[in-house]
Specification:
single chain, alpha+beta, four-stranded antiparallel β-sheet
Length: 149
């Protein structure tokens, strides 16, 4: 079984019955952080770990805001540029963002980011255009975005 860590505090999580989170989760398995009482995620049997690591309300809310206010506008630009390519554009954005954050693309899905990575992503994506992301995808050499600019 793989080790699961909390995205809020980086401590190892424990697999428990969902009833410790709430009665609606009784009988299901969840990963819960022993140090962050609101940090949890459902256990998904297919992967021997959660689909997303446990995180608390602030981190979950930051993911929603980043998707809505930064990624969705880029996806709208993408569809205007290349109609019918939303899924491809999503992959390009994730890959490009991963390079900007200095991480592997498979770890750049929002559900795997902690609050500090989400804050950095907010700044980086706020300065990005889909044209830049598309150019980087075509060149396969993304330029690093300066957060200090």
């Amino acid at each position: 079984m793989s080790t699961v860590f909390c995205t809020d505090c980086a401590h190892e999580c424990e697999r428990v019955d969902g009833a410790v989170i709430g009665p609606e989760l009784a009988g299901s398995q969840v990963w819960r952080c022993p140090d962050c009482p609101d940090s949890w995620a459902r256990h998904i049997d297919a992967k021997d770990g959660p689909g997303e690591p446990p995180s608390g309300p602030e981190t979950k809310a930051a993911r929603v805001r980043l998707q809505r206010d930064r990624i969705e506008p880029l996806l709208e630009q993408a569809v205007r540029t290349e109609p019918g390519t939303r899924t491809l554009a999503q992959g390009r954005i994730v890959y490009w963002l991963a390079k900007q954050l200095g991480m592997e693309a498979e770890h750049a899905a929002l559900g795997f980011m902690g609050i500090e990575q989400l804050r950095r992503a907010w700044v980086i994506l706020g300065r990005a255009s889909y044209a830049q992301i598309l150019e980087a995808a075509r060149n396969k050499q993304p330029r690093r975005h300066s957060e200090a600019a």
